Amino acid sequence: MEFEDRVPFVVRLEAEDRQALFRSATPLAFSARQVLLREHEPTAHVLILLSGWTKVTSAAANGYEALLALRGPGDIVGEAAVLSGRPRGATVTALGQVETLALDADRFSGLLDERPAISRKLLALTADRMRDSDRRRVQYAALNVQERLALLLLELIRSHGEEAEDGVQLTPGLTQSELAGSVGASREAVARLLKGLRERGIVRTGRRGLVVMRPDVLRRMARQGDR
């Protein structure tokens, strides 16, 4: 799952290129848990996220859903399918209310031809995402599920955390199934691990999601397994 790549696409663009992109787009809003883009469907447009968070997932034949990335304000989604001319390679789902700008595939391709600087920034973004994905695969291969979950929670509070009274609140909130999909484990395994973390006062869960209360313990788990 990608977290290092936290410089959104829109922020990378020069003001003139950003304005050209926005002028060509149409506002489009999505409600919580609504699908923005669906895996395997034909490509028709790209989306620029203005507000809210989404999850990027891919489903296996047996129904297992892997969480590939989180995308938020300033990010672009759907661009890979437009560039390759192939069907969507993943599903993008709103985790809450999401506001976007939609660009027709042909218009987006035309902008890339007209404004090479946008193409270069998009290429750099793609390279950053691939590098981070490769790094994570290597890192996770050496860890067990508990260590992977600890590392995931640490990265989430660093990139998507908000200060709470007794710790750091994870935003956006992710379900146990979504956490499991990120660390390559079953929902039941993650549920057992979270139960243990709650009992030890390391995290707490509630209606607003998960709060990390003892990141120092998670850091030890991520390094040594805390066994």
From TrEMBL:
Q: What is this protein called?
A: Crp/Fnr family transcriptional regulator
Where's the HTH crp-type domain? 143-216
Which CDD domains does the entry link to? CAP_ED
Note the PANTHER family from the entry.
Answer: CRP FAMILY TRANSCRIPTIONAL REGULATORY PROTEIN (PTHR24567), HTH-TYPE TRANSCRIPTIONAL REGULATOR ARCR (PTHR24567:SF74)
- Native organism: Streptomyces klenkii
**Pfam families in alphabetical order:** cNMP_binding (PF00027), HTH_Crp_2 (PF13545)
One of the entry's Gene Ontology molecular-function terms is: DNA-binding transcription factor activity
* Ranges of residues in domain Cyclic nucleotide-binding: 9-129
Which controlled-vocabulary keywords does the entry list? DNA-binding, Transcription, Transcription regulation
A Gene Ontology term for the protein's cellular component: cytosol
